[in-house]
Amino acid sequence: MERLSNLSYKNQRILIIFLFSLVPVVLLLTFSYLPVFKMFQYSFTSWDGFSKNMEYVGFDNYKTIFTKPEYFAVFKVSLYYFFATFVQMGLALYFATILSFNVRLKNWFKGILFFPTLLNGVAIGFIFLFFFKPEGTLNTMLDLVGLGAWQQKWLLNPHLINISLAFASVWRYMGMNFIIFLGAISSIGSDIYEASEIDGANRWHQFRHIIIPSIKKILQLNLILAVSGAIGVFEIPYVMTGGSNGSGTFVIQTVDVAFKYSKLGLASAMAVVLLGIVVIVTILQRVLIKEEK
Amino acid sequence: MHTFKYTAASFFKYLTLVLGALAALIPILVVFFASLKTNAEYASTGPLTLPENWLNFSNYTKAFVDGNMLLGFMNTIIIVLISIAGATLTGSMMAYILARFKFKGSKLLMGAFLLATLIPGVTTQVATFQIINSLDLFNTRWAPILMYLGTDIIAVYIFMQFLDSISESLDESAMLDGASYWTIYWRIILPLLSPAIVTVIIVKGVNIYNDFYTPFLYMPKSSLQVVSTALFKFKGPYGSQWEVICAAIMIAIIPTLIAFISLQKYIYNGFAQGSVK
User: Which residues form the ABC transmembrane type-1 domain (chain B) (predicted)?
Assistant: First the structure.
């Protein structure tokens, strides 16, 4: 590196810009943009992933997805997780708000509420498998508080399974939203609260007129992430149910179609459809949010 | 009247906090209880019953040995260390040139990284798999390492944010002494970035430790198992020995708990910064 200092700063600049961006750009192209390109290409073939020649079949894969209900059903499952995100964000916002004011044992509550987010996804799957077992934690607790009649087979009943799984998902990600909101709320200067108190504002007024407007951007960002999050659900249902009983999500199905049944073309077409949905929703939200302003 | 209203609100506040804390803790606590029970004890008691012997670690030994957890931890550590070291270097280099130099294409570069994050990783897995395969990286540790390294705009963002607070006059005075840009980056910028590096290490470390999808898909070979995939293997064969599975769950959780307790302050900041900006 001694020789570098012999170059003029102008040449050094060119060299360092090139060298420093080389590895990240190569990685970016190989693992982000090339896969998207390949995905589009595969989606028009009937490729199995192994054979040497790819046969182009036009829009056949897309026809299959939109005409066979079993391929589209997974999106209904996503809706459970999508709605669960709102529950999750509501809880996170509530706890972040009360914990940003004076509370006893504040740090303990903060730590306990946040901790689940740090846990291993597979471990969480097992924890909730244990929680929802017929003789598991939830049913035992219901019995204990006199609600024995409410006991259910949480993971065997097709009407309940996705709600149970979405609950596990809320448990897992609530802490993440909570800590983000808490960080945003605590960056609001205390003088604003003091001024509002002189004007006679109560906690609700403060929440409505100070807190919500200052964290609006983060709320919106989280809403956008909620869509891709709901579609990208994999670990919890895969570990807990393997996607059985109508709990299969989009990612579970894609993995099955691609790697279990070796229909790479079809799986790619599914991924293209998914990407399309995410792009449309993102654009829609951008437009709606802009109009609001 | 006012005090009554205040007390009621305060009561409600603490009630919800306690309920929230219980909801967060109970699912983990019962697993901990079960992990300390003997097989007969597990079968005859409910999940909320405390274990008879708090020092019965036989399930832990069994889970650790049968699940070959040591191997899982070894592989995880190797992957975490290399990925994080790489991501810190490439991320800070990228941030350095983007924050300090105005050049043609810097906006394009930034935009390319940003756009990439909008593409959900899960959608492109099928095609990514083929790329990994054609690079002959399937069933090697390099597959997840390269994927964790690539396209990390979050790290770049955190570094850029922090670089803004490092005065450019430092760079300039170093240049008066004849330091090269490399020396400035390596001797001045990188050491000053250390708080941001801690943030990136924590956020990335937690993500990699907890990831299941990537190692499951790209390294199915059992000698390459990581903590997640080692744990997943308990599903099925141990269906009748939940007390062993529970011990395995605890083995996977304990490192996280230790890290959380010892790094609490940094972890909160790290996650708030890492996910917002």
Answer: 73-263
Q: How many CA atoms lie within 13 A of A124 on its CB side?
A: 26
Q: What is the DSSP letter of B17?
A: H
Per-residue pLDDT tens digits for A117-137: 999 999 999 999 989 888 888
The answer to whether the beta carbons of residues A99 and A106 sit under 8 Å apart is: yes
Contact A258, A35 (CB under 8 A): no
Q: Is the ipTM of this complex over 0.90?
A: no
Q: Is A45 helix (H, G, I), strand (E, B) or coil?
A: strand
Cβ neighbours of B65 (radius 10 Å): 10
Count of other CB atoms within 10 angstroms of residue B40: 9
pTM reported for the whole predicted model: 0.87
Residue B277 is predicted with a pLDDT of 41
Q: Which two tokens stand for residue B161?
A: 């944010």
Contact flag B130-A49 (C-beta cutoff 8 Å): yes
How many angstroms separate the CA atoms of A142 and A204, rounded? Answer: 34
The whole-angstrom separation of Cα B126 and Cα A258 is 7
Q: Closest to A122 (Cβ–Cβ): which among B34, B182, B231?
A: B231
Is B272 in contact with A35 (Cβ distance < 8 A)? no
Residue A66: beta bridge partners? none
- Best of B17, B110, B227, B240 to substitute, by most chain A Cβ atoms within 10 angstroms, is B17
Q: Is B273 on the interface with A (CB under 8 A)?
A: yes
Segments in chain A forming alpha helices (H): 9-28, 34-43, 60-67, 69-99, 106-114, 121-132, 137-144, 161-186, 190-198, 203-206, 212-214, 216-231, 235-240, 250-255, 264-292
